[in-house]
């Protein structure tokens, strides 16, 4: 994987969720022509195709929630 070992293979569900989101939204704005069910079907089919084609998608760990405390840095 990566040198620091923080990346891990993404699950099929994570990949499909991300693709389905991208099909339904442009940034944070909902795309009017993208139907929820069609986005999910398309995402699932794309994930199956990527797996059959030998692709491996890696995911970083979730980032910690930002802090609202002034003067605190990561």
**How would you state the average pLDDT, rounded?**
80
Number of strands: 4
Calculate Rg over CA atoms.
Answer: 16 Å
Largest sheet: 2 strands, antiparallel
Low-confidence stretches: none
Spatial strand arrangement across the major sheet: 1-4
Q: How many separate domains make up the residues?
A: 1
Instruction: Specify the helix fraction band.
Output: 40-55%
Order of helices and strands: EHEEHE
The SS-based structural class is alpha+beta
Helical region count?
A: 2
Strand content: 5-15%
The end-to-end span amounts to 25 Å
Shape: flat
Structural descriptors:
single chain; 74 residues; alpha+beta; two-stranded antiparallel sheet; 41% helix; 11% strand; flat
Question: If you had to describe this structure to a student in words, what would you say it looks like?
Answer:
This protein has 74 residues and is α+β, with helices and mostly antiparallel strands. It has one domain (8-59). The protein is built from two helices and four strands, in the order βαββαβ. It has helices spanning 12-24, 36-52, and strands at 8-9, 25-26, 29-30, 58-59. The strands form two sheets. It has a two-stranded antiparallel sheet with strand order 1-4. A two-stranded antiparallel ribbon has the order 2-3. β2 and β3 (29-30) form a beta hairpin. The longest helix is centred in the middle third of the chain and has 17 residues, at 36-52. It starts with 7 loop residues before the first strand and ends in a 15-residue tail after the last strand.
